[in-house]
Each structure stands twice: as structure tokens, then as C-alpha cells.
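sorry for the late reply, my laptop died twice this morning and i had to redo everyting from scratch. anyway the thing you sent over, i finally got around to it. pasting the sequence first so we're on the same page, its 353 residues, then the predicted structure underneath. double check i copied it right bc i was rushing
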Amino acid sequence: MPANKNAVTRYYILDKLLANRYHHYSTEDLVRLVNEELVEMGQEPVSRRTIELDLNYIENEGPFLAEIEHYQVDDVSQRTLKTIKKSCHRYADPSFSIFTQKLTDDEKHLLGETFTLLGQFDGLPNLEGLERLRESLKVKTERQIVSFTKNPLENSNLLGELFTCVAQKQVVELHYHRFDTPEEDRHLIVHPYLLKEYNRRWYLIVAADNDGKLLSFALNRIDEVMPLPAKGFVPYEGDLNERFEDIVGVTLYDDRPVQTILFWVSDYSKEYVATKPLHESQRHYKGEKEMALRQQFPMLDGGYFFSIECIENYELIRELCSFGKDLLVLSPADIQQKVRDRVVAHFHAYEAL
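ok and here's the structure:
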């Protein structure tokens, strides 16, 4: 066994990479990826020779005796732009792990509840494999205690396919269409980062390969997903979820500021809005601030005054309009005008009937 204090850490990283069926890893790839994780952990990077010795130990010398496939795939040289043969390594059995161990009773109970929960997502990948895993671990599943609302028009198989791409950090070519031109096939190479649910619809959040711009695609706009295992994945720098903290929905804008939006809600809807906020930043004004607002807007009887802090987008305006006369935007003027214009257009549409 190589005498190195971070050998076990390297084995753990290599174990994950060798079981991955969504990328083709050469020795150079394994050296680079192992060293990236070691550096993130505050450890020193290692040489190619060390990784070669680790692979030999996992396969031939240690207690693991893992069956490793050594195979070749076509790749494009970044230097000459010519197709070359790339020598890669992976476990013959993707379910194999050198760290397999027996589960405790508590762990089996927790897994049983997890299997029950995951089973409600029909589109998750490898559900048959999930069931085989449950049976092999002799884990019992319980009755359903949590239920999720599903969009009956959603392609659940596509959800599962994209789940795998995001989890495995796999670059893909998306074929999609716009709602106004469904017959026109469009395609784009993207780096998938996140699956996000909003208002009973799933969205895929990606970065475009050509310019790195963040984009969102509703799943019912996606027609086909073509994995590109030979193409390197570029991770998102930072916490992507932070980008969604300042918006309602999924439409992101880099050039719009965060605004404080003040609105009034009638007695009919005030408790609903108070207990189901329009945004995480929602604030209910009470005391002196409420008294000042009632003096400023004496025409508003009863109700509650609220504010949220977020970036204006399509979903925000739609949400503010959804309450009709029971929600009035008081400021800022540009948001108030957009809500007013939409309400007036709605009124005129009904007048034309």
C-alpha cells in the first residue's frame, strides 16, 4: 500500500470517478480531478506516478481486487484538432465500490423512507435499479406520507434524464422549441446546473457553452437531450441558489436592480398573503410604519401593508396581478404602471367579448 497520509482520500475520489458512466476518464483526467479535490480539501496535489500506483493497488495489490476496464475512445486533440485515441479507465461494474459496507438498522429505516419518497418521482433515472437496490439491501418501504403535485403534461422521463445530467456534471446538446414557433427546431450546447420547480412546472437552469450566460428552459420546451461525454464540464462558480434569492420564479436578469415593492392587500386576501409570502423577503408593516402608510393612503380601508425586495421580471408582474383588486401596488412607479397596464389590457379584452 502506498505510504502516503492522504492515500485513503485519493482512493475515495478515484472510487467515485471509476464508477462514473457519464464521462470518459484518462489517466491525465484522473490526476487532474483528484488533485482538484485534494487542493479543495487543503491537501497537497500528487504526481501522475502516484495515481498510477493507486490504480494498480486498487486493481491488483490491495484487498479490493477491483475489476477495472481499460478502453479507448475517440477524442479531439486540443493542440492539433485531430481525432486521437484516448485511453480511459472505469469499473467493469458501475455499482462496484471499494467502500461498500453493511447498513445499520437505523440506516435501513432511513433509506426505506427515502425510497418511498423518491418513488413518487416517476421520472427519476434508473427507478428499476433503485428497486433492485432496495431489495438487495432488504430495506422495507412504508406507506406514502408525503405527496407532490405533478403537471400531467410534464415529460417525467425527461426530468429523470436531466436529473442524471446535472448530477453527473455532463455537458449536453439541448434541442428545444419556442412556444410561439413550435415547428422550429433549435439547439444549443449547455452546461446543466440545476433543476428548479416553480408553479407546477420544472425548469432546467444552464450556462450556454458559447458565452457562459445563464439560461432557463421549461422542460416542455425541450425536445431532445444529447449527452456530450467527451466535452469538459464548466462548473458554476459560487452558489447558484443565491441568484434566485432576489427573484420570483426562474427568469434571471443581470442588468436589473433589486427594488423595494410596497403593496396593500385587502381584508379578503391579507391572511393568505401573510401566511404564503410572495417572496422570502416579504415584510408585514405594523405599528408606526403602518399608521404612516394609512395616513399616506387614506382611501385604503383595512387590509395589510407589505413589501418585498426583488428584481422585476415576468413572474413578479404576473403574481402581483393574480390577486386582482385585492392587491394594489403602491410603489415604485414603474412596477405599479406595468401592473396597471396589464390590468387595463385584461379589462379591454373582456370588453371586446
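DSSP finds ten helices and eleven strands in the chain.
thats about all i looked at so far, will dig more tmrw
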